[in-house]
Amino acid sequence: MNGTGRYAIESGSMSVFYGSFCAVRDVDMRVPTNKITAIIGPSGCGKSTVLRCFNRMNDLITNVRIEGEVLFQGQNIYDDSVDPVEVRRRIGMVFQKANPFPKTIYENVAWGTRINGFRGDMDEMVEKALRSAALWDEVKDKLQQSALGLSGGQQQRLCIARAIAVEPEIILMDEPASALDPIATLRIEDLMKELSEKYTIIVVTHNMQQAARISDFTAFFSVDENRTGNLIEFDETEKIFTNPSQKSTEDYITGRFG
Q1: For 202, phi and psi rounded to 5 degrees?
Q2: Separation of alpha carbons 231 and 173, rounded Å
């Protein structure tokens, strides 16, 4: 398998264990470049666990073991020679709950690039990132104010600006709009569509309508009798929602279970 070009990231026989418990088994996914891929499925099926595998965020959890491989740029990111910090710079993450640093709006965006040794025009970089996150016009006169004073939706867009400031190639989003009101949610969705022209986006969502609205591809996970998550189906979103190949996918989409 080749991780460059058509596919942004590819997992091969990827399984995740918490101690002796298998949380997710044998995930084979090829995530297309510069598209939005949604991960859906019932609670406990391992959606967030899979997402965190794609930038080694699970390394930060004790007693976790990953089997199989995850290819990015043709290299297995779990190879011993790969620096997980570099992986997380190139594969950014936006979490369910907005988590701005208790710093100024400016410093929130500048922080990551600064620790990565950025030597360019910081003001220009901050403005560019905030514009990319559709936030500049709302905060350009408050850059030295605390980020904690922003609304929830603004805080989440700030976290997106912070993620893209270090110029990643992939952005992972774990239910980025679940804590937001409908108007703020639509702004995040519109932003994701804009960003997908430049970045590959993988988003976990429990919202079927959101997945149908924003994504190009959808991965449906379910959970078996052992509470282990399994990838049931992965295809273009339109096919998943209108003509899925698996009955369990159809049952979940139509609300018969989950």
Answers
A1: -120, 120
A2: 18
H-type alpha helices, 78-207 = 84-90, 105-115, 122-132, 136-139, 152-165, 182-195
Cα atoms found within 13 Å of the Cα of residue 138, Cβ hemisphere only: 16
Return d(Cα 142, Cα 73) in angstroms, integer.
39
Model confidence at 211: pLDDT above 90? yes
* 256 confidence band (pLDDT: 50, 70, 90): confident
* CATH number, span 7-253: 3.40.50.300
Residue 203, phi-psi category: left (phi > 0), alpha (psi -120 to 50), beta (remainder): beta
Residue 222 near residue 42 (C-beta atoms within 8 A): yes
Q: Is the pLDDT of residue 8 over 50?
A: yes
* Domain parsing of the chain, residue ranges: 7-253
**Of 119, 257, 113, 135, nearest in space to 190 by CA:** 135
Nearest to residue 212, comparing CAs of 252, 152, 158? 252
Which residues are 54's β-sheet partners? Answer: none
- Strands 7-18 and 64-72 come out as antiparallel
**pLDDT category of residue 118 using cuts at 50, 70 and 90:** confident
Pairing of strands 36-40, 217-223: parallel
* 206 CB-contact burial (10 Å; exposed 0-12 / middle 13-18 / buried 19+): middle
Distance in angstroms (rounded) separating the CA atoms of residues 63 and 154: 35
47 three-state secondary structure = helix
Q: Yes or no: say if 125 and 168 are a contact pair by the CB < 8 Å rule.
A: no
